[in-house]
Every structure is written in C-alpha cells, then in structure tokens.
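User: Chemotaxis protein, Couchioplanes caeruleus subsp. caeruleus:
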Amino acid sequence: MKRSTAATRAVEVTVRRNPVVGWLADRSVNVKGLLAAGITALVALGVGALSVGRMSDLSDDLAITKTVHVESLKHLGDLRGGLSDMYAGLLLHSHGDRDPALRTQGRKDVATADAAVDAALAKYQELVATGPQGGHAHTGGVAERRAAMEACAKAIADYRLLRDTVDFGEEPPAGFTPPPVEGISAAFAEVMPRLFGSLAELRSAEDAAATAMADAAAEKYREARAVTIAALLLGLTIAAAVGFAVSRMMARQLRGTSAALDAVATGDLTHPAEVRSSDELGRMAAAVNEARDGIRRTVETLAAGSRTLGDSSQRLTGVTGRIATSAQGAADQANVVATAAGDVSNNVQSVAAGSEQMRSSIREIAQNAQDAARVAADAVGAAEVTNKTVAKLGESSAEIDNVVKAITSIAEQTNLLALNATIEAARAGESGKGFAVVASEVKDLAQETARATEDISRRVEAIQSDTVKAVDTIGEIGRIIARINDYQLTIAAAVEEQTTTAGEMSRSVTEAAGGASDIAANIRGVAASAETTTTELTEAERTAAELARLATDLQSAVGRFRV
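Assistant: Predicted structure for Chemotaxis protein:
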C-alpha cells in the first residue's frame, strides 16, 4: 500500500529547539506514547518487584512465627495434657486399694502420660534449642524460654521422684533421699508450685516471644510500606514528568496549528502554522501551511473570476431586458387580438346555444300541444262517462228514496204496535210491567228510526238535486274540452313548422360558432407563444440578475480573506 506524500516528505522545522528536546519531538506520536507508557510500566514493575520482595520477607516471618510460636504452644499444650493424664492415672491408682485392676490400670496410665510428657518436653526443648531459622532477627525471649523450660524439666523430675517413691513405693535412685513421713506433704507442697510456676513462665515467655515477633513484623511492614510508597512516588514523578514533557510538546504544536486554522477560518491567510517537529503533528502543521497557500491561490483566482462574472452578467441583464420589452409588446398585441376573437367566439356560441334552446323549446311545445290534444280527447270521453255515471246516481238515489219510504212505514207500524203493547201491559197490571218496559224501548227505537229515515230522505233529495246540476255542468265541460281539442291541433301543426325552421337556423349558427372558436384558438396560441417567450426572457433576466448578485456575493466572500 502506498503511503501519502504528506507522510513521506521531509518537514522543515521553523523554530529553534534543544537537541535532546528536538530528538524527542521528532519521534512519532506512537513512539512518544509508547515511551510514556514504557516508563510508567517500568515504574509499576519496579514498585511491584519491591513490594513482592517485602511481602516475601513478611511471609517468611509469618512462617517463623508459626514454627517458633504456634508449634511451641502446641508442645506446651501436649505437655499440659500429659500432666493432666498423669494426675488422672495417679488418682485411679490411689483408688485401687479394693480393686487391684484399677491400681494396675492407673499405673499404666501414669506411665503412658509420662511418655507423652517426655515427648512433648523433648520436642519443645529441641524447638527452643534451635531458635529462629533463616537468619531473621526474631530472637526475643529465647533465653527466658530456655530458663523456664529447664526449670519445668527440673520440677517434673523432682515430682516424679517423690511420686515414684511415695505413691508407688519404688526404691529411690542413688543420690535421692526420700523425705520422712511427716515431710511428704511439705515436699509435694514445695515441688508442685515450682512445676506450675515453670509452666506459667513458659506460657509468659511464649507470649513475650510472640509479641516480639509481631512487633518485628509490624516494623518490617511499616518499612516496606514506606519504601514502596517512596518508590511509587518517585516512579510516578518520573512518569508524570515524561508525560508532561510529551504532552507539552504535542500541545504547543497543536496550539500553533489550531491558531493557524482559526486564522484561516476568520479569512486571514497570512498567518502560517509553526512547525516544531517532524512527527505527525509537524507534518500536519506543514500540510496546514500548504493548504493555506492553496486556499490563497484559489481565493485570488476566485476574485478575478468574480469580477469577470459581474461584468458579463450586467451585459446579459441589459440584452435580456431589451428583448423582454419587445416580446412583451408582441404579447400584449396578441392578447388584445385573442381577447377580441374570444369575445366574437363567445357571442356566436351564445347565439348557437340560444337557437338550440329555442329549437328545444319549440320541440317541447309541439310535444306538449300533442299531449294536450290527447288529454282533451280523453277528457271528452271521461266527461261522457261521468255524465252517464251521474245519471245512474240519480236513478240510485230515487231507489234509495223508495227504500226510505218503506222503512218509514215499518217504523210507524212498529210504533203503533209498541203503543198497543203498552196499553195491554197497563191492563195486565203488575205482571205486565216487564213487557211494558220492552214495549217502551221498542217505541223509542221506532221513533228514532223514523227520525233517521226522515234525515235520509232529506239527504237523498239533496243528492238528486245536485245530480241534476252535475249532469248539466259535465255536459258544458264536454263541449268546452271539444273546442280546446280543436285549438290544440291547430297549435301543434304551427309548432311543427317552427321546429323545422329553428333546426336549419341552429345548424347554420353552430357552423359559424365552430369557425369563430378555431380563430380564437389560433389567436390564443399566438398569444401563449408570446407570453412564453416573455416569461422565458424574464427568467433569463432574473438569472442574469442572480449571476450578478452571485458575482457580488463572491467578491464579498473573497474580500474576507487577506492574501
């Protein structure tokens, strides 16, 4: 893959600098970052190694503490446990007067406990005799523990001599004189405090030794912490100094480049960027200077071109203005002609539409006249039928009058019968009261029927009178409708002739309207072409004005730069 020219060309440093600082400044940004990171890593490694060494020493001290103190306490615990087992066996032996087996078992337990005490005492003596290992200085309390251990061993030996000779009845060894009977208690009273006191001194010596070891370990921890913190601070100071130097170099180069770019942003092309190194930032500053020079040359070219563009756009504006004026005059004349032709076409079309409407109206009148003639004929027939029907109605009303008379006669007879029934009921006395009531109701009904038949008679007489008048009126209507029918036939014939004449006139006017429409359409086409030409010339004039404005804006924009 090819590297860019900016990355491979030699960069000329434009400022004076220290040789060492210059060497570091010329290294790439990656190398500077790796250098700062490497120094930080070395500091971390050094501090880590120092901390690991110190922690190793603390671990060794903890191991010695476990060996010297924890193991010592374990052996002391075994010693105390053996003494307790010995006392238990001795107690069992003392209760064996009635049971020899208990006495024997007690003696065995005492022997076993003595062996455990001797083993614990030997291990403790060996641990105290060897002292701390590994060259460490945890030697506090060694002499005290040895003295306490020797006193404890002497007290155990003295106690065993008394126990074996007094309690077990064994022969005293050479050089040992058993106490008299009265002195046994005093002898045990003297040896037992020494035994328990030596054990307490051993425990105190162990505690003192453990305290000394803990104090020594704490002192080592404080020393290791102080050394680690000092090394860490020193390393961080070195790393911070290197990082600050690297960042200061980069920041100064970036500030110079940023100032040059800010000047370009404000239109100042006379402020170059300082090249302080030959690394990526220095090459960037050199590239900024080259870009600034290129922009300056471009601005100069744009300034000359904008002036030329302004002059050309002004000339173009004058030419298009004159052409637009001429085209606008032609368009106005064409519009006047188009308007007149349109008015003629509209008038002819209005006449054509009026003739067509008149033709339609005449055709509709003829149709209505024919329909009216048919309706008049139908009305004559209907009048005749109605006349006959009304005559039949008169005959029917006469028949109704006969029926009414018959009903009236029946009602009179019923009334007489009811009167006779009333008289007979009166003669019958009390037994005829019910029949008298019925006869009275029949009488009332007969009288009501008589009144109704009288009313019907009056109404039938009125119907007969109206029927005679209706027959006369319908006859007169029939004669009038016959005359109307004659008039309608005459009108229909005249309207048919007018329909033919109106059709011919409508066709002539329609043809004239078509010719006028074609003329108006052609004139409108001419006017539209003139309008289009005017519009395009106006657009050209506006474009020329925009070019002039663009040239002015371009000159203003170029004027912002100082070259």
